[in-house]
Amino acid sequence: MMRRINLSLTSALAAAAFSLSTAPSRGQTAMLVEKKVFELPSYTTEGGGTIRNLRIGWESYGTPNADKSNVVLVTHYFSGTSHAAGKYSASDQVAGYWDPIIGPGKAIDTDKYFVVSSDTLVNINVGTPNVVTTGPASIDPDTGKPYGMAFPVVTFGDMVKVQKALLDSLGIAKLKAVVGASGGALQAYQWAQDFPERVERIVPVIGAAGSNPFLIAWLDVWAQPIRLDPHWNGGDYYGREPPKAGVAGALTVVGLHANGAEWAAQGFGSAPADPGKPPAKALDNRFKIQAVLDAAGETRAAGVDANTFLYLIKANQLASTDPARIKAPTLLVSSPSDLVFPPDWIERTAGAIAANGTPIERATVSGPNGHLNGVLHIAQAGPAIAAFLAKPFK
Amino acid sequence: MMRRINLSLTSALAAAAFSLSTAPSRGQTAMLVEKKVFELPSYTTEGGGTIRNLRIGWESYGTPNADKSNVVLVTHYFSGTSHAAGKYSASDQVAGYWDPIIGPGKAIDTDKYFVVSSDTLVNINVGTPNVVTTGPASIDPDTGKPYGMAFPVVTFGDMVKVQKALLDSLGIAKLKAVVGASGGALQAYQWAQDFPERVERIVPVIGAAGSNPFLIAWLDVWAQPIRLDPHWNGGDYYGREPPKAGVAGALTVVGLHANGAEWAAQGFGSAPADPGKPPAKALDNRFKIQAVLDAAGETRAAGVDANTFLYLIKANQLASTDPARIKAPTLLVSSPSDLVFPPDWIERTAGAIAANGTPIERATVSGPNGHLNGVLHIAQAGPAIAAFLAKPFK
Which among B229, B265, B267 is the nearest to A228, CB-wise? Predict the structure, then answer.
């Protein structure tokens, strides 16, 4: 089986621009991890749809203690996967996306905690090795063909219920914490709202407690390139040429919205893509930043399914947790230059949680990458996360 | 001739959401204006291209004084036109976009100033009544067919040179001020840099002194829907079905990027487009904000040419004025919630201009509309603009 790592678009971009790497420093031995699969014979969605043969991938780092009271659930972001830490093989070039804070002696210390990370339902990277998910690209047992647009709408509530079933199967009754970035933060809030008795504390990173009308509209902009690609064909493209240009375009929009002006300025300036083709000379002569973004989108598109992208967009548009129902102590980590979940919105979520009398702490991550500071520069919040996990909340 | 008003996408959206109008209050008589046309037999672009039979539309408000020393040039924004004030006919529903500050007794007082407003080269609204422009949709005299992608790249430098030729034709040697929003601000800076002896002062509104790498990439996102539309066909669609879906999609992205979260929350909430079709029930069931944005884009697309949109994108990507060369006293008007030209970038422009010893004053416009506060709520800056215009700079 291929053991290629699931390098995210955004990490790839940052790596290209800055030679950043989320891998452990040289000389350290990488934590080796393997993908496991959880299956449910049948699952009924919040909307009343039925998914048979549901499968999601998951990984774990560390060891459960005797009463399984040391479990931390890590939930992934929009374009992410369950590969949060470690490597599948010592020869992998890059470790999981949050490797700087998950591992022995790190902020989420695998010498203390048993860390579980799962692929969500409708994970967009369905065509990528090591991602296991169920969505519109999955085979409908009733027809033997991909569900396509017949797949039921799924919500963050559904994602969390499936994770709960996974934890039930492992005999885990209560989580020490749910920790996740962006879409992972939405899952953390959802856990705290839907299963308050099973979550001791949450660490939402770069995320408010759901979508808002402006983000609903932006998510539609993310999806638009797919709908415009004639190969999308109303969602009916399995077995034919898929809408790769649309998917690439969609990933480009996501990657840009999630990044920041400082990143663009430092990494690209106004350099041309090709020094022999100045952008002022012809309409099609591009700037370097356009060429790099387009190339990243195209490369990444090979593993991403268009319909699944649309289903995940819908789930994000529907995301809506009531901060007044968050009773779990919360460490909210945010990025001041975040364009997806900007500071004023984060403040409102924090204020609404505090208004319950729920303990809430704050930390920030800064850097040139806007929203993505919460992925690429999470190490800044490592001490705050470690201290928060160590607190004796019930 | 049709006298339909050139309602901009963004004004239309705001009007739909808030029953806003930029028309004078009832009871006031509208200033009546007419479109005029300026022609150049031949123009050579900064890049060395030749445009024959160049034509741009223009309007004026007020009366020139004897020595024509009372002239204010108003420059329009990306999706705007020269219709800055007044009405073409008393029955027009909406007045020009900056009517609240241009007219008798208003901030740009037409009892004192002769205000000239011109359509730029490559104005996207080329298919709209009352817009006169030259671009890829214009007929190439050499072939008798539209230029299409054979049209030369044009820059903000070119736009300003053509405006200068218009003013020369009117015997106007020096401008009291250049005043413009967004793309109009880029023109104001360009005027101050390229023709310092002909500009007494500038009032750039919601704009920094050029593009930056992040905006370059965003502008490509604005353009992307057109390039994805198969009807665009590499720019070769004249005489066939044009890429209307791509143009509508592009206008939707522009309209969203230029607006703000508060607008979306106040105007739409998370209401469904159709109460009988809840967004949670099916993938294609939309939220109201999506339906309104899409409808506005589709309506507007009828008057917008796809290739011209791409040429204007290119001009914006190339926009680059050196603030160190701005010697004209400047009143910089900005919107704190602007996502296109955000506050930190505006500050850097202001700082760089001040560092010359150039007098610079500041004013802000606030409201729910982000970047568009500079169009929809410009009246807030009226007193600052009036006072600045009245100052005895040289």
Answer: B229
Catalytic annotation present for B231: no
The CATH class given to the A9-390 domain equals: alpha beta
Q: Write out the H or E segment, with its range, that includes residue B375.
A: helix B373-376
The pLDDT profile of chain A, 394 residues, written as one tens digit per residue, is 333 333 344 444 433 333 333 444 444 678 999 999 999 999 999 999 999 999 999 999 999 999 999 999 999 999 999 999 999 999 999 999 999 999 999 999 999 999 999 999 999 999 999 999 999 999 999 999 999 999 999 999 999 999 999 999 999 999 999 999 999 999 999 999 999 999 999 999 999 999 999 999 999 999 999 999 999 999 999 999 999 999 999 999 999 999 999 999 998 888 999 999 999 999 999 999 999 999 999 999 999 999 999 999 999 999 999 999 999 999 999 999 999 999 999 999 999 999 989 999 999 999 999 999 999 999 999 999 999 999 998 6
Contact B229 A224 (CB under 8 A): no
The whole-model pTM stands at 0.93
Q: Do B245 and A228 touch (CB under 8 A)?
A: yes
H helical segments located in B116-235: 156-169, 183-194, 213-228
Every domain of chain A and the residues it spans: 9-390
A150 contacts chain B (CB < 8 A):
no
Say whether A249 and B314 touch across the interface (CB within 8 A): no
Identify all chain A residues contacting B212, using CB atoms and an 8 Å cutoff: 261, 264-265, 270
Active site residue A338: yes
Cα torsion through A298, A299, A300, A306, rounded to 10: 40
CA distance B202 to B155: 19
Tell me, yes or no, if A231 is annotated catalytic.
no
Q: Hunting for tokens 């982000």 — which residue is that?
A: B370
ipTM value, please give it.
0.92
